[in-house]
């Protein structure tokens, strides 16, 4: 595999080299060819004089035989350990062990195994989720989260052909990337992405097909869900017999939220529509109480988890956290005393960084400046700028498509770029900034090495200097921060309005509010004008900027349980100028009641201060981890800040690990579900409840068929036998056909789904542990149907197995056929 990957990467790099037109683009790719070849390579084409003149800039030199070699292998002046991080390593860097398949995976998808135990557990949990439930899942980037909305929809459509789902995504690029993947999956080819830039006629066609159940998965931004798609989603959520359906066959069965961590961070101020999703999902559930929600992310900090539980935890709730980071990266970081020193190191690094590469900045203006320098002075052409300031959807899509096609080698971006976009061969991620949290840093480094091979992550940032007096700027002023550390501190506290300005804004919103009656609990409902301007507001700051601050205020008030933001009626421009809100605390309605008013705002800002303090504390801890990278594993330290309950091992590829001689890990086991949903009433096997003992006859394939016919939906067996058992189960009409490794079950590593289950110990195994664990399970699940397949005469602790394993007399395997004939469809 290593040789194949290396050869493929060499050929791809040569192709890009030959397509490049400027000396800068060609020389940086020539350096990459040399790196991939062990430090020396022959140019694929004769060098032009203009190219030869630039060799030194890229740390290259010509040899007597016409080859090119790397001459500046010591790059510690850019970042500690960078030279070691850049040495080619062609070996796979998976780290996490795969997991054996299930019958349902083989039946519904082209996959023959799961990428990890966490993915397997999450899929099983999503497939068995009860009506009205919500599931929160965090798994590493590239761990296969998309399968969590692909497999359930395929399963649901087997029984309800018009069953469909909505996937809420943060970026158009991610929606379109998912659409490309779904179009290649049997049964999901008709899935579509829709955004504000979708032409009206095409949008109407998509929504009509969705209402009729012809589109299995519809990918939307939250703004589109609240805008053009809203009435169609509400109608599709109704029962198939509802008169509102007008005979249409679509049935909205679930809402998935991809990259759910941004609900807490982006939803605070940048994209506040994310925080309106719970109310909209609640409205959908009034039409379809069975609607499920699934929240997916690679990074769910304690703050994000708290927000998601509060917003989505009204029905049955479940969580799965893999608690395993990705280990594909060589990591390095350096801090600098000033920007000019950092930028000099940055430009040298960009001229040497393996391609394709992404350079992240925090501010749009920094990305603009860097892009201009690289194109105008650096001579790069195969580079693009991608920031939130690029509002033209066509231009953004073109960049993503060129990036995916390999026509770009470098992208200068702010954090929205690449969010979830599955470009597998990104080799380098550079932070020319200090991210405001470990979560953002980890998410963005995770854009690299998604093919499971070597990736490089380098962070270059300017530190805060010790000096007296104020520095930086407040969030409302215009100017620059003195350091990246100051900038990160402001970002960590971004969107935190002062108490005085917040009260003034709320008074302005109340003055322009229109009553919308009261809800069923008597709470007042208001239509609030987002264009309301507080007294004294500079006229230059009206318009969208003013609306943004008002949205941030309303989101703050919702997080502090003062009001609930409701979904807005559709508008043509998908940027509503009004929000509806249900007031939960009447104290904020009357400024004249000074005592109640001040107490209410004191509570609001106590909560706000707690949020801001937590964000800043997380930043301080992340800065400490960066500063200690020569002593403590950087990946482990950062990941502990994201998932405090995790216990990751050292990465083996950062400066501390290299100094301490720590090897990269292998064979890692991700975590799995620690709960089981209540059993489905629809699964009623034709077997007695409790444990029954069945004597095997010899043919495992025949046994699997008999178990499937009497309603067994899960088999526990040695992991080595799991693939064959899954394949045998897939040949029979089981709904799930889960296959669980006995080794995990016996050591109580995880919780089995609450399904009719058969246990298949090896013929010569020691049965004592199996019997004891089965007894424990049977006591916990007296309602369940459990089969132990073993010789009834086997001895356990000096007693015959049939005397201790079951209250029922043992059965011969053939009796299962008689059960099926005698009791088919009745249940016992």
From TrEMBL:
Domain Helicase ATP-binding: 126-309
Enzyme class: isomerase
Domain Helicase C-terminal, chain residue ranges per copy: 345-494
Pfam families (UniProt xref): DEAD (PF00270), Helicase_C (PF00271)
Molecular function per GO: helicase activity
Record's catalysed reaction(s): Couples ATP hydrolysis with the unwinding of duplex DNA by translocating in the 3'-5' direction
EC number per UniProt: 5.6.2.4
Swiss-Prot/TrEMBL keywords: ATP-binding, DNA-binding, Helicase, Hydrolase, Isomerase, Nucleotide-binding
Family according to the record: Belongs to the helicase family. RecQ subfamily.
Protein name in the entry: DNA 3'-5' helicase
Provenance organism: Brevundimonas nasdae
